[in-house]
């Protein structure tokens, strides 16, 4: 039940952010803030639960979380305004998820999201036992292992948002750099001899994850804008699936690898996987130069416009092209003639009726 609720909340929440903020700079900043809070929950949860369990009992952490979720749900009902039935019926139809999955650019991004989260997903269930056996770590050290990593994660989000605003065409490079940092940090974890040394590579892993997530999640929305229909629920469902694959395999696969091969081989394998996958993001280097198709629904969905929303958009595109051609023939063209649907309908009908006069 918790996984089902998390899937609903993550997918719809990130999709609403992408739909609300259409400018790439604002979208990157908003998604970065959302990712920072997602990581806050993941990294602060172990010490939060451990402290409450130690001093208040095992029920209190879950009761506190249930109250927070209930309050947040009430805020969603009061703050987020749902669409009316008429608006919902005339909204554009999104590209089916199976078509998004076979898009090569989206597949590359999904693979990067899975690969970069594997070290965190595989270390969380195995690192406590390794710390206890190799460095005689105390219980509070094992409980606070991931807490310091939250701060470099926030720093990584901040740096990526700032760089993306200045150099948006290098989003792929920020993701590749993050994967290299994750790979190098994973390889150095087994060399740590005490708790203080261990903090550095774990902070490096979370810093790299912040670079990858903050750079590539807005890229998913941009790919949907230019290659598909601008409805973001399906593409962020793919992103959520990518995260879930890593965290679902973590407790099962990581435990078997540590048991059969050892903790060192686990970390070396995760680091090598991230470094080898980083060059694949070169395929995204020309994404920022893509232009949206003016007939995206006809090409991608193989069907004509549906509903009021699509009709308006199609008519505006036709009217814009006709207006430009008229202006090129020396006739006056009013830029504000397409401001409202009623005005456009009237001008468009007049063009049809008096097309011979214009010719």
Order of helices and strands: HHHHHHHHHHHHHHHHH
Q: What shape does the CA trace take?
A: globular
Major sheet description: none
- Give the CATH topology of the largest domain: Growth Hormone, Chain: A
List low-confidence stretches.
294-312, 324-359
Instruction: Report the helical percentage.
Output: over 70%
When the domains are counted, the total is 2
> Taking Cα atoms only, what radius of gyration do you get, to the nearest Å?
25 Å
Fraction of residues in β-strands: under 5%
Instruction: Give the CATH superfamily of the largest domain.
Output: MFS general substrate transporter like domains
The number of strands is 0
Structural class, from secondary structure content? mainly alpha
- Mean pLDDT, rounded to whole units? 75
Please report the first level of CATH classification, the CATH class of the largest domain.
Mainly Alpha
**How many H/I helices?**
17
Tell me the distance between the termini. Answer: 65 Å
Under the CATH scheme, the architecture of the largest domain is Up-down Bundle
Q: What features would you describe in this structure?
A:
The protein is mainly alpha-helical. It has 2 domains: 2-289, Growth Hormone, Chain: A (Up-down Bundle), CATH 1.20.1250; 305-358, no CATH class. Helix content is 76%, strand content 0%. The chain has 17 helices and no strands. It has helices at residues 2-20, 24-56, 59-79, 85-89, 97-101, 104-123, 127-134, 139-143, 150-166, 171-188, 195-227, 233-260, 263-277, 296-301, 307-328, 341-353, 355-358. α6 runs antiparallel to α11, α6 crosses α12 and α12 packs antiparallel against α13 (263-277). The protein starts with a helix and ends with a helix. InterPro entries: MFS, MFS_trans_sf, MFS_Vesicular_Transporter. Pfam families: MFS_1. This is Vesicular acetylcholine transporter. Residues 319-359 are annotated as: Disordered. The chain crosses the membrane at residues 30-48, 60-80, 100-123, 143-161, 173-192, 198-223, 235-254, 266-284.
């Amino acid at each position: 039940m918790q996984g089902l609720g998390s899937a609903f909340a993550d997918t719809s929440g990130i999709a609403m952010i992408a739909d609300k903020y259409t400018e790439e700079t604002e979208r990157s900043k908003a998604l970065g803030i959302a990712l920072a809070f997602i990581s806050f929950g993941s990294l602060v949860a172990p010490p939060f639960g451990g402290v409450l369990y130690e001093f208040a009992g095992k029920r209190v952490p879950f009761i506190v979380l249930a109250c927070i979720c209930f309050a947040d749900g009430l805020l969603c009902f009061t703050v987020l305004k749902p669409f009316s039935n008429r608006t919902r019926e005339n909204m554009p139809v999104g590209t089916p998820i199976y078509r998004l999955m076979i898009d090569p650019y989206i597949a590359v991004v999904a693979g990067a999201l899975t690969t970069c989260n594997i070290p965190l997903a595989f270390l969380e269930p195995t690192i406590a036992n390794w710390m206890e056996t190799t460095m005689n770590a105390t219980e509070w050290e094992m409980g606070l292992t991931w807490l310091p990593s939250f701060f470099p994660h926030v720093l990584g989000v901040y740096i990526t948002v700032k760089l993306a605003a200045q150099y948006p065409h290098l989003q792929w490079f920020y993701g590749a750099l993050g994967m290299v940092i994750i790979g190098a940090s994973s390889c150095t974890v087994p060399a740590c001899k005490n708790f203080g040394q261990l903090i550095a590579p774990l902070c490096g892993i979370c810093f790299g994850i912040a670079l990858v997530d903050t750079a590539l999640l807005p890229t998913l929305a941009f790919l949907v804008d230019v290659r598909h229909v601008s409805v973001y629920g399906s593409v962020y469902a793919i992103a959520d699936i990518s995260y879930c694959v890593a965290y679902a395999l973590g407790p099962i696969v990581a435990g078997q690898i540590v048991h059969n091969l050892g903790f060192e081989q686990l970390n070396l394998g995760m680091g090598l996987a991230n470094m080898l996958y980083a060059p694949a993001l070169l395929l995204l280097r020309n994404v920022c130069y893509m232009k949206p198709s003016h007939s995206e629904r006809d090409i991608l969905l193989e069907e004509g416009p549906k509903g009021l929303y699509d009709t308006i958009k199609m008519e505006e595109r036709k009217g814009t092209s006709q207006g430009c051609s008229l202006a090129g023939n020396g006739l006056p063209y009013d830029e504000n003639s397409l401001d409202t649907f009623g005005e456009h309908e009237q001008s468009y009908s007049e063009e049809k009726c008096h097309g011979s006069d214009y010719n």
